[in-house]
Amino acid sequence: MPEFVPPLLLFVALLVVLLAGYPVAFTLAGVSLLAAGLGSLLGVFDSAFLNAFPNRVFGLMLNQTLVAVPAFVFMGSMLERSKLAEELLLTMEQVLGNVRSGLALAVMLVGALLAASTGIVGATVVTMGLLALPSMLQRGYSPALASGSICAAGTLGQIIPPSIALVLLGDVLANAYQQAQISQGIFSPDTVSVGDLFAGALLPGVLLVALYCLYVMIFARPKQTEAGKLTRPGAVQVLKLLAAPLLLIVLVLGSILFGVASPTEAAAVGAAGATMMAAVRGKLNWRVLRAVVLRTAQITSMVFMILIAAALFALVFRGFAGDRVVSHALENLPGGVITAMLVVMAVIFVLGFLLDFIEITYVVVPIVAPVLFSMGISPLWLGIMIAVNLQTSFLTPPFGFALFYLRGVAGDRITTRQLYRGVMPFIGIQLLLLVLLALFPGLVTWLPGLLS
């Protein structure tokens, strides 16, 4: 049997079972165990690879970087319960009331602020879907543009730090980079940290917001005039509302970028700050606290179940020599590193139609990243390229999570076809950002170099 057949069959079986609708974590673990058992019977898999699984799980539990995940989830859930998004959207709508396409711009700017404060896509999309979508449709925005704008603004939390996606990606890339260096005989390897990724993602995130705003300013043409419908708030009122979230952003993101605190420590500060903000706003009680803690436990449990299952999949894939097959295939592509990078980006983009960013991060990235690092690609630049590419998975049908979130709260206001048509231009903008980062790597590397 050719060497590439077992890992290929494993990957195809995984996709088939996922498309059948089974939960991701149990699909990863179940398919991996079944493949390992069948491979052992056929003599193409050494079951000794599974002996490393307990150590992998123990390593996940002791990983200090991953402790930031529940803290960031708690922070985002607490800010959602404090009704911050509602007040921000209303205030920005009033501020931009005399600007053409003001409500669409307000959605984008509030999405960026919430991304830098919470980083939770579901909460942002649902909140703005409930608040902004009816208003946008009432004022004559097309259903496609209104729904696309809300979905796109909600996904900004995946690229604008502090982002849970960047925390998970940073952990994977650090391990892959060390593995690549050790394979090259470098036994005191450098590393790439989550803080480096946060710094590298800042300028691309701001550029993406600017491209979104430019698009809605050009193409958002509401039938009704927005000017004069709302009373503009005073500067003091606006500053009073923005002061708390901006302070939280500075405390969390600033402490990471300037090396004052690790991402885990900064996440704890953010969780405490979000709780204090909710208390000051009179939104904190035992019912709210219980709901936030329960949601944090649910999301964190889901994430870690996927991480454990992905660790098992990685062991089985390596046992079938899949890492060697992928390495050989990428290194022997015509065009060298450029073609290899294009192929990896294309594969991640296509998988985004079917898989969530967590599965891609922990299943695909550990396989391809060491090969690309050994070919001389910067880990920081590769990390941000992958992060922007993974962001498209929230918008690409049929399984884009932002689409599910908005479709669930929109009711019969929009059709699925209008929703899909509305997100297409924003997917194109995300791909345009990928091209810009490929042509101008300094957009990623300049700020981390300055801070270091």
Polypeptide structure, described:
75% of the residues lie in helices and 0% in strands. It has 452 residues and is an all-alpha fold. It has one domain (66-451). Helix 3 runs antiparallel to helix 13 and helix 6 packs parallel to helix 8. The longest helix has 34 residues, at 286-319. The model has no long low-confidence stretch (mean pLDDT 86).
Ranges with pLDDT <50 over ≥5 residues?
A: none
Q: How much is the average pLDDT?
A: 86
Radius of gyration: 22 Å
> Cα distance, first to last residue?
50 Å
Alpha-beta content class: mainly alpha
Quaternary form: single chain
How many E-type strands? 0
Q: How many distinct folded domains?
A: 1
C-alpha geometry: globular
Task: Give the ordered list of helices and strands.
Answer: HHHHHHHHHHHHHHHHHHHH
Q: Total helix count?
A: 20
Helix content: over 70%
Detail the topology: elements first, then pairings:
Elements (H helix, E strand, L loop, with lengths): L4 H15 L4 H19 L10 H10 L5 H14 L2 H12 L6 H16 L3 H18 L4 H12 L9 H20 L10 H26 L15 H23 L5 H18 L5 H34 L2 H10 L4 H16 L5 H18 L4 H13 L9 H10 L5 H24 L2 H10 L1
